[in-house]
Amino acid sequence: MPDRASLRIPVAKPLLEGNEIKYVTECIETSWVSSAGRFIPAFEARFAEFCGVEHCIATNNGTTALHLALVAMGVGPGDEVIVPTLTYIASANAVSYCGATPVFADCDPRTMNIDPQSVASRIGPKTKGILVVHLYGHPADMDPINELAAAHGLFVLEDAAEAHGAEYKGRRVGGMGRCATFSFFGNKIVTTGEGGAVTTNDAELAAKLRLYRGQGMDPARRYWFPVIGYNYRMTNIQAALGLAQMERVDTALSRRARLAGWYDAALAPLADVVQRPHVETWARPSWWMYTVLLKGADAARRDGVMTALDAAGIETRPVFYPMHIMPPYFEAEGHYPVSDVCAASGLNLPTHEGMSEADVARIAGALAAALA
Ligand SMILES: *Cc1c(COP(=O)(O)O)cnc(C)c1O
Prior knowledge:
The chain has helices spanning 20-30, 39-51, 62-72, 89-97, 116-122, 142-152, 203-213, 236-246, 249-267, 299-311, 337-345, 357-371; strands at residues 55-59, 80-84, 101-105, 127-133, 155-159, 167-168, 171-172, 179-183, 196-200, 274-275, 283-284, 290-294, 317-318, 346-349. It has 372 residues and is α/β, with parallel strands linked by helices. The structure holds pyridoxal-5'-phosphate.
């Protein structure tokens, strides 16, 4: 057996050590394997309670949750939605699925979240809403965004795919805009394999979300379809996994916070070259991915460091490439200087519950060696 110090450390890894096997087995033994069954409403109720919101509508993944939310809020051709350029591509693609246009905003240099001033500069006559992403689990600064939205009659949608349980000014994300979406992909803080959800305090919107999730079938008349809907339903098996995950989500969050503390301490001696994640005084991150910037590094240098870490058995990921350099969204004249710097110099270090303080020491040592 190889000793622990030479084992590969993956960047993410789900922990399925609670009632997952018991609940999934129940689905199979009772034959409730599709999108009806007790775990779906149980998971939805549990997740709504966790976020402190009235309604949770579970979906088959986080991207369909985003699309569903935009559809239910009436986004369509000709509309514009402001999206951070520094995000996972699903945030922008969901807007495109509606026939609408994502209009990009730059980010804040400390949190890498959407910059309210940049948002303000992108609001125009076609703007319908603002899609905020709580990137890598640090909540975005919601108050100025909500003020802008109120002043211009726009919706605010939180993409909280990476931020389960993150807090903004003492409140959990998921209920700070008109609605919010989550992902339960295998590398997210709570996983259902693939899965997603929309949360909201708006009962009318919740009804629309349920309607469009289930092919648009009239809840009062079976097999009558007043609108073109989608099949974006979550299965009972996914919800079974999710319910088991939610039973230990508080432990998951506190272990991630502890891990971030270990990283902060281990990387402090490298402060000249490694910028550790900034946490706003009003924020409590979910610590989805512990993300550092290599000061002054360009993408080639960052990629070289990642290759060296890989050779040392440590998997990392580059910070997301910004949307404005992707072929479908390319902007020759795009000016997003902060996002460009974060994307070129940033990397995500392994962040998952199974990690020990010794793993963190090993990663910090390998990073120091790679930078030397
Ligand atoms: C993971 C993620 C999504 C998409 O979720 P899937 O479940 O993979 O479809 C959307 N937005 C962000 C910011 C994400 O990180």
